[in-house]
Amino acid sequence: MAKEIIEAGWNFDNSYARLPKTLFTSHNPTPVRSPKLVKINDSLATSLGLNVEALKIEEGIAVLAGNRIPEGASPLAQAYAGHQFGHFNMLGDGRAILLGEQITPLGERFDIQLKGPGRTPYSRGGDGRAALGPMLREYIISEAMHALDIPTTRSLAVVTTGEPVYREKVLPGAILTRVAASHLRVGTFQYVAQWGTIEELQILADYTIKRHYPNVEADENRYLSLLQEVIKRQASLIAKWQLVGFIHGVMNTDNMTISGETIDYGPCAFMDTYDPATVFSSIDIQGRYAYGNQPSIAVWNLARFAEALLPLLHEDQDQAVKLAEDALLDFTKLYKSNWLEGMRAKLGIFNEEMEDESLIEDLLNMMLKYRADYTNTFRALTYEKLEDTVLFGTTEFTQWHEQWQARLSRQKESKASSSQLMRNSNPSVIPRNHRVEEALEAAVEKGDYSVMEKLLDVLSKPYAHTPEQAEYCTLPPPSDRPYRTFCGT
Ligand code: AMP
Ligand code: MG
């Protein structure tokens, strides 16, 4: 078969492009010199109805590089605002372009977005480009999150551009193709609330309901229901982050989705040693987005979402505020019950007892006191292999362990089911920082993608607990320099 006639399977229907023009600017990617495909997500491509082989040839790669606009696409940059570290700014897609919405063979709708496709009207001083290392990093971590069963945007492909990008150093340029339920953010609503009309706000809210929460369409106050649903999804999402030790790093309101997916893998990282004060981002000097602060920051962000929705919640402003406040109060309850449920599962507990929370807190406090590794502590409890760590050698822990065993014996489920629950709830592998760095270094410095491929393979089955995964559970050698991550790279 001639190469040209392999259809890639693009099947666009661009609902966002039919929204009021204030919400976006139609804009094409800026072509790049010599695109080369370095990573493609075969299974994701297939589930989107795309032909992987067609994406691997010149015409397919040209689309992933922004050099060719596929039929049916309508490239645009989205407008949005956002509170960045608490300060409100006009932002927008400064280095991203939405190609369109792919309708899958199952009839689902996903945004196909290029990240790093050149300047847009929202680029401000930026170049609209992205470097290879950070795009591969987003690929690895977002796919690891997906495998951990955490709602997230996905990564379809990474292409190098053949052009340099200028940061502190000259770096190879790259473009990531990101796939998302949508790119609607808290900041999208803030933008319209600040600079749009009430009609536009209503159109945006109705669009969001139709796209993500059709179950509330017929509700008496569907905008309040929308707020409640977003709160519910975020409470579930943040609990999942906490349960695996994921630190987003830059929970600005523009980086919080309305769909409940994790988005924008910039300075994120997984925690090794358990400590709620853990921060990796170089610019988060005050620890605003520290691990332990994520639930309260989520409420703060959701309060900004509620504020943006106020004119739709009730015509009387006081009543609107009251409705929003009540809805926000639910976050803490919902988050807590999701977290407790997840923690019980991590400890093999099926039923509920009043004392469970203190049993969990006692363990976490000991982990903090004895600087225990978060993932490996739960892994050791799961495998009943209490290795030689400071924590496991203490009498405090021995006493806790007896209490825990007594707790397990008070439930009707067998030891075997409890153990299975723990295996399903405690990942043996997470994208540990030193492993991710090692994979990126081989790829970026040496053009050797084998380290990354192996890492991706291991990360794709975090609950498989295979013997081959053991080497990925080891901790980094002690270092006097803390691990640091960076934004906007
Ligand atoms: P982020 O920290 O990645 O969420 O980005 C915050 C804002 O900065 C968004 O509006 C981005 O589009 C914009 N931005 C980040 N990097 C660049 C860049 N290289 N060029 C233009 N805009 C950028
Ligand atoms: Mg962002």
The gist of it:
It contains 15 helices and twelve strands. By secondary structure, it is α+β, with helices and mostly antiparallel strands.
Structural description of this entry:
- The protein is α+β, with helices and mostly antiparallel strands and 489 residues long.
- Among the domains are: 2-183, no CATH class; 187-344, no CATH class.
- Helix content is 42%, strand content 13%.
- The chain is built from 15 helices and twelve strands.
- The strands form four sheets. Strands 2, 6, 7, 8, 9 and 10 form a six-stranded antiparallel sheet that branches. The protein has a two-stranded antiparallel ribbon with strand order 1-3. A two-stranded antiparallel ribbon has the order 4-5.
- Strand 4 and strand 5 form a beta hairpin.
- Helix 5 (186-195) packs across helix 8, helix 8 (294-313) runs antiparallel to helix 9 and helix 10 (356-369) runs antiparallel to helix 12 (395-409).
Keywords, please?
about 500 residues; alpha+beta; binds adenosine monophosphate
Write the layout of secondary structure elements.
Elements: E1 24-26, E2 36-40, H1 42-47, H2 52-56, H3 58-64, E3 76-78, E4 81-84, E5 87-90, E6 96-103, E7 109-115, E8 130-131, H4 132-147, E9 154-166, E10 170-180, H5 186-195, H6 198-212, H7 222-244, E11 246-247, E12 269-270, H8 294-313, H9 317-346, H10 356-369, H11 374-383, H12 395-409, H13 415-425, H14 433-446, H15 450-459
Helix pairs in contact: 4-14, 4-15, 5-8, 7-8, 7-9, 8-9, 10-12, 14-15
Bound molecules: adenosine monophosphate and magnesium ion.
Magnesium ion (MG) is lined by residues 254-255, 264.
